[in-house]
Amino acid sequence: MSRPWIVGLLAGLLLLLTACGDPSSDPEAASTPSSPATGSTTHQRPPASPGASAGSASGAGTGAASEPASKGAATAGRPRPTVLYLGDSLAMENQKVLGGLLRDEARARYTSAPYSGTTLCDYLEGTGQDSLVPPKDKAAALVRRLRPDFVVLQFWGNAWGYTPCMDGITYDKKRAEYFARYTADAGRLTDQIEGAASGAKVVWVLQGPDPMTPDRVRRVNAVYEKQATASGDLLADAGKAVSAPSARYTWTQYLPCTAYEREHGPYCTQPSSGRTALHRDDDYLHFCLAPTTSTPKPCPVRSPGILRITRAITGAVLSAAD
Question: Contact at 8 Å (CB) between 197 and 147?
């Protein structure tokens, strides 16, 4: 792999970090993004009946991106959990589908407030002005207001110093400091969430393979696993769902179609070969199969990678809620 190719890919991925995904606003709680690179809090309450769905006031997302409602999964006797979803551009592109699944499967009260290009420190209170997340959407602030049962955290692991609160600590130049900072911030964020509402469970989403630095994402996931063990919190191995069964940390653009994907045509992108695309040819990081746009928004098309990831997260929440 030549150095010019690596540099070009890094530059492209950095641009994509700030271009993909932004919360759509529900009619019951609409708000306006502060800038194209950031998000606004989205609330999705359970519909009046399992077959109904909430609309989008902004029009940023479309029904094409939503997971079809499951049949008979939401039962009247199941507790109705409150779920808060925070994260970076991967969470931004996932948020509409995850909200639909949690609503259908768990009758959940769901709020999402992801921001592109962020990392753990952006959601910490006390980071001053050097943060991509405004004070109203810091993790602890949202937890105090919403009193969620589960706080789902999905962070790929900003490695290039884009986030101001990382103080220029990057994976390539300050590797030991990078992991030390991630470890410390994971502990601080957990403490702030638990301090804001007793009983809120953090769900750490484990990430999929990184095509450029495969060991980095493995070690970031280890940070999340260690923190979950230390604090008695939860893991959702969404990354496993977008990895080959025998190569958890080897990046791949395609995987064999699942039975569900074969039965639901748009999710099996290459039915003749029995495989489906997880990424676009021009975006190795994100899982939305629509091109990124200058105005961030949730993924507007059915995307197998997003469905696989959000199903893994939903499964973790359902297992803990039962």
Answer: yes
Average pLDDT, integer, range 231-237: 98
pLDDT tens digit sequence for 238-250: 999 999 999 999 9
**Checking phi first, is residue 59 left (phi over 0); if not, alpha (psi -120 to 50) or beta?**
left
The answer to whether 314 and 101 have CB atoms below 8 angstroms apart is yes
Asked if residue 124 lies in contact with residue 189, where contact means CB atoms within 8 angstroms, the answer is: yes
pLDDT bucket at 79, cuts 50 / 70 / 90:
confident
Q: Are 187 and 153 in contact (CB under 8 A)?
A: no
Residue 304, CA atoms < 13 Å, CB-side half-sphere: 28
Amino acid at position 229, single letter: T
In angstroms, rounded to a whole number, what is the distance separating the alpha carbons of residues 198 and 23?
A: 27
Which positions ≥6 away from 116 have C-beta within 8 Å? 17, 18, 19, 20, 21, 22, 37, 38, 39, 88, 89, 92, 132, 296
Q: Do residues 95 and 67 lie in contact, with contact meaning Cβ atoms separated by under 8 Å?
A: no
Residue with tokens 């209170």: 125
How far is residue 134's CA from residue 232's CA, in Å, rounded to a whole number?
Answer: 28
Q: For residues 124 and 118, is the Cβ–Cβ distance under 8 A?
A: no
Using alpha carbons, select from 136, 141, 83 the residue that is nearest to residue 112.
83
- The values of phi and psi at residue 247, to 5°, are -150, 75
56, 24 contact by CB (below 8 A)? yes
Of 8, 89, 104, 121, the residue nearest 51 (C-alpha):
104
Beta bridge partners of 111: 43, 84
